[in-house]
Amino acid sequence: MNPEPILEFLHAHRSIRRYTDEPVPDADIRTAVAAGQAASTSSAIQAYSVLHITRPEIRQQLAELTGPQKKVARAGAFLVICGDTRRHRLACTSAGTDYDARLEAFLLAVVDASLFAQNMALAFEAMGYGICYIGGLRNHIDAVDELIRTPEGVYPLYGMCVGRPAEAPGPRPRLPVDQVLHTDDWPDDDALMSGLDDYDAVYREYLQQRGANPRGWTEAMVRLFDHPARTQLAPHYTSKGANLT
Ligand SMILES: Cc1cc2nc3c(=O)[nH]c(=O)nc-3n(C[C@H](O)[C@H](O)[C@H](O)COP(=O)(O)O)c2cc1C
Question: pTM of this prediction?
Fold first, then answer.
């Protein structure tokens, strides 16, 4: 296999936030889900499921709850990706034993669901669709859950908009490989931080070109992480049967 076209395809990823009105046929959704299922999964537990939201009124309410993010209502399709331990619980119950909820089981579901989702995203992109993950799904997790009525043991993690792209954004620059690849030893903190200066400049330039508030990546991260956010997640997932301790 020639890796070049595949590497080029991977590097061509951009989140797409504006879509044409074209719907996504069920057959394409099934194809992408099957490709998602081909991803590696811890001990084959396949601890995920995906809810395809087709009712326009639910899409509209989810668009409000996620931001508002209009694309959630307007994209060709909207999917909710869930960590799903339901089948494991039922298997234990029918075997006459208790399902032992634990942090490890929750993490397995989050990791499994994310490998599944990213494979699915790539499959959609390979079919010419654009996608955008929607972490805003966790902004009001209780209200979202009332709408989509997940059973115990199922944890909505994020959404995914899918549709034919109506925009062609440039690539959002990533950290240099040397910031994330370390060989045998860890860099010291000073080296890590001073290495960010150049990236901050590149990132600022990228945001400026997009017409967004130009700030370096470091500053953007401080603004994200210097205050509490989505504090209802632990109680919510616990109320749905997760043990997060
Ligand atoms: C789990 C996850 C949640 C995300 N949530 C949102 C979201 O709610 N709204 C949005 O517009 N983009 C969202 N994104 C897209 C990221 O902002 C985007 O992937 C990142 O800025 C890199 O840009 P790129 O995907 O175009 O390379 C999310 C991405 C991930 C992986």
Answer: 0.98
Quick one: tokens of 91? 């298997």
- Residues in CB range of 11: below 8 A, 6 or more apart: 171
On whether both 68 and 114 belong to a single domain, the answer is: yes
* Cβ < 6 A, ligand 1 pocket: 13-15, 17, 69, 132-136, 158, 172
pLDDT in tens, 100-117: 999 999 999 999 999 999
| 132 and 161 Cβ atoms separated by less than 8 Å | yes
C-alpha of residue 136 to centroid of ligand 1, in Å = 10
User: Rounded to whole angstroms, how far apart are CA atoms 149 and 87?
Assistant: 17
Domains contained in the chain, number? 2
pLDDT band, residue 95 (cuts 50/70/90):
very high
Give the start-end residues of each E strand in the chain. 48-53, 77-84, 130-134, 154-163
What is the whole-number distance in angstroms between the Cα of residue 135 and the centre of ligand 1? 7
Distance set, CA 234 to CA 55, 230, 239, 240, 242 (Å): 28, 9, 8, 10, 9
Same domain, 126 and 226: no
